[in-house]
């Protein structure tokens, strides 16, 4: 999932803490990276592991975190 901050002035470390605190208990964080977007803007790219339920609730919860402009699902896969 790509988490876009509201602007370049948002502290990504603080944003990461707030985003991870908003993750539901039934979802596990697998990896966290920072990726450049454009013009100095960087996004958090977070890999989650969850059950077979829809990721829409997770996307909605993370979109509501202070400092997040939007959270978008980039890829969905299955673990075997």
Give a brief outline of the structure.
With 80 residues, the chain is α+β, with helices and mostly antiparallel strands.
Describe the structure.
The chain is α+β, with helices and mostly antiparallel strands. The protein has one domain (2-72): Ribosomal protein S6/Translation elongation factor EF1B (Alpha-Beta Plaits), CATH 3.30.70. The protein is 22% helix and 36% strand. It is built from two helices and four strands; from the N terminus they run E-H-E-E-H-E. It has helices at residues 12-21, 56-63; strands at 2-5, 28-38, 41-49, 68-72. It has a four-stranded antiparallel sheet. The mean pLDDT is 92.
SSE inventory with pairings:
Layout (H helix, E strand, L loop, with lengths): L1 E4 L6 H10 L6 E11 L2 E9 L6 H8 L4 E5 L8
Antiparallel strand pairs: 1-3, 1-4, 2-3
CATH architecture: 2-Layer Sandwich
- Unreliable runs, pLDDT <50, ≥5 residues? none
Spatial order of the strands forming the largest sheet: 2-3-1-4
SS content category:
alpha+beta
Mean of residue pLDDT? Answer: 92
Outline type: globular
Task: Give the biggest sheet.
Answer: 4 strands, antiparallel
Number of strands: 4
Radius of gyration from the CA trace? 12 Å
The CATH superfamily is known as Ribosomal protein S6/Translation elongation factor EF1B
Percent in strands:
35-45%
């Amino acid at each position: 999932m790509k988490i876009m901050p509201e602007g370049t002035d948002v502290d990504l470390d603080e944003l990461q803490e707030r985003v991870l605190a908003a993750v539901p208990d039934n979802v596990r964080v697998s990896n966290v990276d920072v990726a450049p977007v454009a013009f100095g803007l960087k996004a958090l790219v977070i890999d989650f592991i969850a059950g077979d339920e829809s990721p829409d609730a997770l996307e909605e919860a993370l979109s509501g975190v202070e400092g997040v402009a939007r959270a978008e699902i980039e890829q969905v896969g299955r673990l075997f």
